[in-house]
């Protein structure tokens, strides 16, 4: 399975865990909620859905509205098929959700993984965040070394583009540092709380700018409150 199809499988299972959907609804959610799938086609989605059905992770059901089925019949069209997650599909999603290896740190994978952080355990969130930070710090070091070697040969516009790229990576590293510190603060608060229960899945993390204070933490996962977006589009999973 390719990386692209693997992250698509993860996203489809995650969205269908929220509620059953037909293909058009699912494609719309992928396009609007998960940025990596904005240039996404039915030609990629339906083979994935068929594979998930054949694996027993999804089942196909007719549309729930009788009038829709009647209208489709009169028009000579097929009624919309609704895809529903099976118990095995939920287990498969949980398995993928627990994965925190290098694939989860890559650019397009990380955005999708982050969109489902509200359903991810704290330990996995921490490993993914720290892995992503490590990956970006390596990238930043290479960018700085490359700029130092080629600075004299670059014109002003190319040099400015290089600086812009470095600043973007630096902003994301700062954003990740804030998230990691917030996760640690939330974990420490839970450990110190008298009679604290076993770890629960927190609500999806919000984002804030690097200028906002880091000592304002929320009650869900220790994440900072009232944050704006300090990183371009890490693929919020919100319905439209």
What is the CA-atom radius of gyration, in angstroms?
21 Å
Q: What's the number of helices?
A: 8
Fraction of residues in β-strands? 5-15%
> What is the total tally of β strands?
3
Q: Distance between termini?
A: 30 Å
Largest sheet: 3 strands, antiparallel
* Strand order, sheet with most strands: 1-3-2
TL;DR of this structure?
With 240 residues, this protein is mostly helical. The protein is 56% helix and 5% strand.
Plain-language structure description:
The chain is mainly alpha-helical and 240 residues long. The protein has 8 helices and 3 strands, in the order H-E-H-H-E-H-E-H-H-H-H. Helix 1 (3-18) packs across helix 3 (42-54) and helix 1 crosses helix 5 (87-97).
What are the salient characteristics of this protein?
240 residues; mainly alpha; 3-stranded antiparallel β-sheet; 8 helices; 3 strands; 56% helix; globular; disordered C terminus
